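LSM2-LSM8 complex subunit LSM8, pasting as requested.
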Amino acid sequence: MSEIQAYVNERVLVVTSDGRVIVGTLKGFDQVTNIVLADCQERIFSPDDGVEMAPLGLYFIRGDNIAVVGLVDQEQDSSLQFGALRAQPLPEILHGA
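Structure tokens follow.
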């Protein structure tokens, strides 16, 4: 059984290789770790403004574009004041040629 199987129907945070941060409910995945997220949103970080939440709804992410998948502690997540957070956006992952 894949380790990601335990995350199905749980709230997860995905960091993509291009530096995007997407949070949603993991609904499914396949053998190459393509994933389907429901009720998701992208969190867009800025050093000058608060975190922008861009609703995405149902979203598919290709497995080769996923850097990290982790469970969200919903209690901690709901207590954060995203409007007050300031952070540099994550850089794109560059692979050597």
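Note for the archive: The first strand starts at residue 11 and ends at 16.
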